[in-house]
Amino acid sequence: MAKDKAKRGSKSEVLNAQPLVITPKLLGEWMLPQPEDDDDKEARGRVLVIGGSTEIAGAVVLAATAALRAGAGKMQIATCRSLAPHVSMAVPEARVIGLPETAAGGIAAGGLQQIEKELAEARAVLVGPGMVDEAATIRLMRNLLHRIPDAATLVLDAGALSFLKHAPESLKRLHGRVVLTPHAGEMASISGIEKNAIEAAPLETVRNAVAELNAVVALKGRETLIAAPASKNVYCNRAGNVGLATSGSGDTLSGVIAGLAARGSTPFQAAVWGVYLHACAGDELARRMGPLGFLARELLAEIPPMMAKLCQPKKQ
Questions:
Q1: Which CATH number fits the domain 20-31+44-310, given the four candidates 3.40.1190.20, 3.30.930.10, 3.40.50.720, 3.30.390.60?
Q2: What is the pLDDT of residue 315?
Q3: N or C end of the chain, less CB within 10 A?
Q4: Angle made by CA atoms 104, 107, 110, in degrees to the nearest 5
Q5: pLDDT (tens digit, 9 = 90+) per residue, 273-299?
Q6: From start to end of the chain, where are the E strands?
Q7: Residue 155: is it exposed, middle or buried by C-beta count within 10 angstroms (0-12/13-18/19+)?
């Protein structure tokens, strides 16, 4: 009995441990995969971004550009057919595939048959930026999950998160290779817990979500918490500022995470590094421009120099 009690006490201590604050020193001990000098773009992986709607075409532009800024080698975007030429002009580095769209301006689920090859070759698949037709998104997600390659990371953001309130068990077949990036309001919708209760107990919320959904969860807020299946560690990001609470900022974050995953980071590492890079980019813009008024698209150019700074080898 005493032995069992000791075991329970040890488990309790692990569960109640405080989150680890993300710092440059911590990241320096968990370095991103680095390409070899002779690697080509295939070695840094392909990202497939699925999203957009006739109301919000720019979200996939932000997400795709962010993934490239994070170092992904190749970019493919699947969006509504009427948007495809415009998105192609906005992201000339990407191959853009136009999919059938619904009357409400979303992506029709049957269109996934057109991107079987792109899905099979992707190392990271990002779904959700700019999606507003919830019914169409739910149908698309049901058709998508069994098509995710075994070695790929799936990143779900924005509109794609709404699917989970209808099918919370659906991610288990992906064995933790999923990153979710909800804010408190989206988490409330997924979990059925009141938003104010989530804000009052974010650490408990993120741990419960990881256990229920079997996914890496980055619960966004003034302090973003990141947790993963089979890890006792929860990471806490305290960088960033109020200026990051702006339209398109979340699309940029999810794109950075997808780009890092395409390069070979684990889903957990991609989420931790992505959250911190995104926050530090906002801090740099706030320092130069002021705390309010910088745009999500201005975060993009800050990612490579911030990443290079954090990835500098330690001096002996």
A1: 3.40.1190.20
A2: 56
A3: C
A4: 120
A5: 999 999 999 999 999 999 999 999 999
A6: 20-21, 46-50, 74-80, 95-99, 124-127, 153-156, 178-180, 216-219, 224-227, 234-237
A7: buried
